[in-house]
Amino acid sequence: IVANKFKGVYASVIETEFTARMCRAVNNANVLTMGSMVVAPYVAIQAVDAGRVRLAMIGGGLAVVALDGSEARGEDYPDAGDVYSLATGLDGDLWLATAVGGVLRRSSSGWRAYRSATRGPGGSFDDRTSTISVDRKGTVWLGTLRSGLGRYDPETDRFEAFPGPGPGGAY
Question: Is the pTM of this model over 0.90?
């Protein structure tokens, strides 16, 4: 896994909630990766607290599910296609990377969409996002399908692009 080349990153490939828990407990994994042909019917999973996870499902939709099966409730969000990745900021905001709708952010004031029209001065980012993550310092990072890596700038409320060396900004 390329992610493990970076200092402080311990990435593991998971297929189930059990393997996610075991990778965290045994290997101290702090990044979980999932193969798109292996994991279904959801495409992203995130721990909410000790006993619940949030799932982003194929065909759209978010749900919070208790690991013991006692709770399952849907969460509303703006229609932006499938959610490929989700993350929670240090401030508690929920960030969603979507198939065709850019990035969605839920804060205490509601939902906000970040699309290519709201690009930062450092360049644009692609509305076809694939992953989103929040590092230990609270920086929000975005991976796109065509435009490379993006970083959220809270002062301008925009994403700045960091294109890779490959064609179209790929890494």
Answer: no
**Mean per-residue pLDDT, 34-47:** 61
Q: Is the pLDDT of residue 123 over 50?
A: no
Burial profile 58-68: b = 16 or more Cβ within 10 angstroms, e = fewer: eeebbebbeee
What are 143-153's pLDDT values in tens digits?
887 777 888 98
The Cα–Cα gap between 27 and 135 comes to: 19
Instruction: Please list, in sequence order, all residues whose beta carbon lies within 8 angstroms of the beta carbon of residue 101, skipping any fewer than 6 positions away.
Output: 78, 79, 80, 81, 113, 115, 127
